[in-house]
C-alpha cells in the first residue's frame, strides 16, 4: 500500500526544521532523513541502506565451498577440506549538492502560507531520493553528463566487474522463453540452494517498467487464469517463482538478477547538511542540501546482468 504525503511527513518528520537557517543535521535529523528515504522508496526499503560513520566503509561477504565433507580417519590430522571465500568491497562516499532557488514572488503567492517551508522541505527530500536512486542505477563516471558522471552506479559496476555474471540477450524480447531463463541459468547454482530453503524470492529479477509490461503481455497471450489476471491485476508477477521487480530508472535493455541485500547504498550521515538563506538583493530564497554517498555490489558472484553485449564478457575463472 502506498503512503500519502501526509503519512510520509509524519513518519520521517521532514519539516521546515530540516531546511532551517543552515548547518549539519543532528543525529536525530540524520536518522529521520534515512527513515524518510526508506518510507518514500519501496526499493530503498528493501535494499541495504547504510548510515556510514565515516566517508569509507568496507562491505564483507563470506561463503564456503561445497563438498567439504570427508570420512573420519581415526588417529589422523584430518586436514581441512573446506575453504572460506572472503570478498571485501568498499564504499567511498562522494560529495553531492542539490541547490534550489525559490523567488520571493512564489513565497508571496503560494496558497499554503506559513506551511510553504514544510512543503518545500518535503519536495526537496523526495527529489533527493529520486535522484539518488537514478544515480545509484545509471551513474557512470565516464559519462559527459554532469549528473551521471558523479559516481558509478550498479549497472556500470556490474558490467565492469569480472566477478559478476553476464548474459547476452542478443536483443531478444522473448522474456518468457529466453531472457529470464538465461539470467537464472547464469547464476551459480549454490545461490539457489542457499536462498530457496528460506525464500526463493530473495533472488529477484530487476527490469524496467516497459519490460515488465511486455512480460505481462506475453502472459496475457496464454489461455490461462494467470494470463487473464494480468489484464486487471497490477501486482508484481514472477518467473519460476522469482519476483519480477520493475525499477523506474532502469533502461529497457538492462535486466539483472540479485538479492536485494546485495545492492548497498551508503550515506555518510555527518555529511548531511541543509541550508536556507534569504537573499534580498536577488529577491529569492536559496535552499541547499549537501550529502556524501556511494553505491556498491556486496557479493559480485551473486549478481547476473543481462544486456545485448557486443564484447566477450565471460567472467575470469
Describe the fold and architecture.
- The chain has 317 residues and is an alpha+beta fold.
- It folds into two domains: 14-60 and 87-152 and 264-293, Major capsid protein gp5 fold, CATH 3.30.2400; 161-262 and 299-307, hypothetical protein PF0899 domain (hypothetical protein PF0899 fold).
- It contains ten helices and 14 strands.
- Strands 1, 2, 5, 11, 12 and 13 form a six-stranded mixed sheet that branches.
- A hairpin with a 2-residue loop joins strand 8 (238-239) and strand 9 (242-246).
- It is globular and about 85 Å long.
**For the terminal residues, how far apart are their CA atoms?**
44 Å
Could you say which overall geometry the principal axes of the C-alpha atoms support?
Answer: globular
Which parts are unreliable, with pLDDT below 50 for 5 consecutive residues or more? Answer: 1-20, 311-317
Percent of residues in β-strands: 25-35%
Instruction: Compute the CA-based radius of gyration.
Output: 23 Å
The arrangement of helices and strands along the chain is HEHHEEEEHHHEHHEHHEEEEEEE
**Whole-number average pLDDT?**
81
Q: Count of helices?
A: 10
Biggest sheet descriptor = 6 strands, mixed
CATH topology of the largest domain: Major capsid protein gp5 fold
Amino acid at each position: 500500500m502506498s503512503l500519502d504525503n501526509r503519512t510520509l511527513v509524519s513518519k520521517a518528520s521532514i519539516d521546515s526544521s530540516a531546511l532551517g537557517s543552515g548547518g549539519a543535521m543532528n543525529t536525530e535529523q540524520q536518522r529521520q532523513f534515512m527513515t524518510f528515504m526508506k518510507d518514500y522508496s519501496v526499493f530503498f526499503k528493501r535494499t541495504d541502506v547504510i548510515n556510514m560513520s565515516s566517508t569509507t566503509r568496507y562491505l564483507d561477504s563470506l561463503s564456503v565451498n561445497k563438498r567439504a565433507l570427508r570420512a573420519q580417519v581415526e588417529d589422523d590430522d584430518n586436514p581441512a577440506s573446506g575453504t572460506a571465500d572472503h570478498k571485501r568491497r568498499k564504499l567511498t562516499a562522494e560529495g553531492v549538492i542539490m541547490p534550489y532557488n525559490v523567488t520571493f514572488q512564489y513565497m508571496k503567492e503560494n496558497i499554503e502560507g506559513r506551511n510553504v517551508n514544510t512543503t518545500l522541505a518535503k519536495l526537496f527530500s523526495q527529489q533527493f531520493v529520486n535522484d539518488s536512486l537514478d544515480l545509484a542505477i545509471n551513474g557512470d563516471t565516464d559519462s559527459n553528463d554532469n549528473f551521471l558522471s558523479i559516481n558509478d552506479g550498479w549497472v556500470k559496476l556490474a558490467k565492469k566487474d569480472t566477478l559478476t555474471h553476464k548474459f547476452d540477450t542478443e536483443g531478444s524480447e522473448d522474456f518468457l522463453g529466453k531472457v529470464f531463463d538465461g539470467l537464472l541459468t547464469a547464476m551459480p547454482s549454490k545461490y539457489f540452494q542457499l536462498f530457496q530453503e528460506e525464500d526463493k524470492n530473495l533472488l529477484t529479477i530487476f527490469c524496467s517498467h516497459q519490460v515488465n509490461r511486455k512480460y505481462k503481455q506475453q502472459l496475457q497471450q496464454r489461455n490461462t487464469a494467470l494470463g487473464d489476471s494480468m489484464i486487471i491485476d497490477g501486482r508484481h508477477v514472477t518467473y519460476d517463482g522469482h519476483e519480477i521487480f520493475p525499477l523506474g530508472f532502469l533502461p529497457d535493455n538492462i535486466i539483472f538478477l540479485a538479492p536485494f541485500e546485495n545492492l548497498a547504498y551508503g550515506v555518510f550521515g555527518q555529511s548531511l547538511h541543509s541550508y536556507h538563506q534569504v537573499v534580498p538583493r536577488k529577491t529569492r530564497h536559496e535552499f541547499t542540501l549537501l550529502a556524501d554517498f556511494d553505491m556498491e555490489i556486496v557479493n559480485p558472484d551473486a549478481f547476473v546482468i543481462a544486456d545485448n553485449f557486443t564484447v566477450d564478457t565471460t567472467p575470469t575463472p
